[in-house]
Amino acid sequence: MKKIALSALVSVLLFAAVFANGQKEGSKIELAASSGGMSVNSPAGKALTKFAELVNEYSNGSVTVKVFYDTTLGNPSSLVNGLQQGTVDICVCGDAYYSGLVPEIQAFELPYMFNSISEARTKINGKAGDFIMEKLAKKGIQPLAFWEIGVRQLTNNKREINTPADLKGVKLRCLPATFQVKAWEAAGAIPVPMDISELYSSLQQGVVDGQENPLSEIYNQRFYEVQKYLSLTGHVYTPMLLSASSITWNRLTAEQQNALKKAAKEAQQEVYRINDENSAKLLKQIKDAGVKVNENPDKQAFKKAMSGSVDMFAAQYGTDIINILK
């Protein structure tokens, strides 16, 4: 009887091992992905839809991705936390929301860090991006690819903004990252860190007077409905990071992981294409909605006012990432 019982136990354990291996190696997996507060019609929303299609194709149907837009699965801060805990499979959101885990990521969004959008894309997809990805991988998050929100512009309800002096007394929503706050303080505004999910109502109710975002978000989030003035300051380039939870990642086979990486890089090009094509069109639509646009604010004055950000960053986090970006 003991031999029979022992034999049965061994059989059960062997079956369990095979079943577990089969779950990883052969079963179909459905993942949930969030656009991190972005709408379905935003560049990130459209690219995430494309990403889901490509994952299904490249994994031969073994991985499907269901996409959730806006804040259906939570705001960006909670989504990044969910990636760490394994309660969120995949999300894409602005780099600032990862800064609590890897503060060095804030270097990408220091004011006037890049001379052009093409330079920003090249450097972030090179050694600088690798530097950040390696650090995040140690925090329970598997980065897949850097996408972008775009180049940020300034809107408000107080007055036309041409120089930093015009920001006096303006309560400005900014990204929830330390050096974004410090940069806007240096420029003369009253910075108010806030998730994008709260921003429209805060502008509408006067909780904040203005905000800064790329044209795609100013249009797709309808901020132009509750803002009077737009200044094309082009002060910051904002990447987005598409990431998976390490817990989710480890459920996948090597082939499935490669499918996600390949899809993420191809969808990145979709984001770039949409942003490049939409810039002039969106500006016209915002003008047509009645927003007064200053196309030539004094960028050099803003750059000078915010120039201390790099030194402050280096004093706190060192110069490794800054030197890579040079």
Biggest sheet, strands in spatial order?
7-6-8-5-9-11
What portion of the residues fall into strands of 2 or more residues?
15-25%
Radius of gyration from CA coordinates: 22 Å
Contiguous uncertain segments of 5+ residues: 1-26
CATH superfamily: Bacterial extracellular solute-binding protein, family 7
CATH class: Alpha Beta
Number of domains: 1
**Annotated CATH architecture:** 3-Layer(aba) Sandwich
Biggest sheet architecture = 6 strands, mixed
What structural class results from the helix and strand content? alpha/beta
Order of H and E elements: HEHEHEHHEEEHEHEHEEHHEHHH
Principal-axes shape call:
globular
What is the CA–CA distance across the termini? 74 Å
Let me know the number of strands. 11
* Average pLDDT: 90
CATH fold annotation:
D-Maltodextrin-Binding Protein, domain 2
Specify the number of helices: 13
What level of helicity do the residues show? 40-55%
Report on the architecture of this protein.
This protein has 326 residues and is an alpha/beta fold. The chain has one domain (27-325): Bacterial extracellular solute-binding protein, family 7 (D-Maltodextrin-Binding Protein, domain 2). Helix content is 47%, strand content 18%. The protein contains 13 helices and eleven strands. The chain has helices at 2-25, 43-58, 76-85, 117-124, 127-137, 178-187, 199-205, 215-220, 246-249, 254-288, 299-305, 308-317, 320-325; strands spanning 29-34, 63-68, 90-94, 141-151, 153-156, 171-174, 190-193, 210-213, 229-231, 237-245, 292-294. The protein has a six-stranded mixed β-sheet. A five-stranded mixed β-sheet has the order 2-1-3-10-4, sandwiched between helices. Strand 1, helix 2 (43-58) and strand 2 form a beta-alpha-beta unit. Helix 6 (178-187) runs antiparallel to helix 12 (308-317). The radius of gyration is 22 Å and the shape is globular. The chain starts with a helix and ends with a helix.
